[in-house]
């Protein structure tokens, strides 16, 4: 893979991770409104779906029409292209619609969560799996360890062990609303997004309708590279990626739930 191709793949993972984070932040918006008034939640959902649908309906046809390789049986043969870009535009649009609704009513957001820092943490997690190129060389890209749940779990092991020990020791989930849980959860979510995006079996990036490929006739690598005795067959690669990504999502959601459970349990009532 040339530098331009690697940059495009990296951008794909960054955009996909950002979209997942925006989707999560929309849920936080929704909970903030629900805590204020159930009736207002119905109004928020209208803004949410209208914002997402409007941006999707406007953007996707234009982007696909401008796709640089649609005449070369590359973009058009990629079944994930339209769905992937639709997912991104809907997440961005729905968050925009939700933000407009909250801004007009002046409803405060639950927790002290920054969109900018949260997005950066999630994107960082999405980029770490490709560090196998930096550390092991391009020949070891899509390394089985870097593209698994093992490495991110090891990176965040101190937090996970501390949380587990605290819960077991206190016989309670009230372990404090540590910002560390929120940060680790977003990192794991970003890491999982990278693994999910790598399952696409096409010979082009699912987001390639946004840019021109350096070599339209090249094929993206498939399968996973072994590390010592640890080997995953090409046939089992997709299952490996989905399973490990799902493990990370479960852990991330557990940490996020723990964060908000403790945050809301200490929030004074009206």
Structure description:
The protein is mostly helical. It has one domain (3-265). Helices cover 65% and strands 0% of the residues. It is built from 9 helices and no strands. Helix 2 (38-65) runs antiparallel to helix 3 and helix 8 packs antiparallel against helix 9 (237-265). The chain is flat, with a radius of gyration of 20 Å. The protein starts with a helix and ends in a 5-residue tail after the last helix. Residues 1-5 have low confidence and may be disordered.
Distance from first to last alpha carbon: 58 Å
Q: Count every helix, treating DSSP H or I runs of 4 or more residues as helices.
A: 9
Low-confidence stretches: 1-5
**What is the number of beta strands?**
0
- Computed over alpha carbons, the radius of gyration is 20 Å
Largest sheet: none
Supply the key terms.
0% strand; 65% helix; 9 helices; disordered N terminus; mainly alpha; 270 residues; flat
Quick gist of this model?
The chain is mostly helical. Helix content is 65%, strand content 0%.
Topology at a glance:
Blueprint: H1 3-36, H2 38-65, H3 80-105, H4 115-127, H5 131-136, H6 150-155, H7 157-170, H8 179-197, H9 237-265
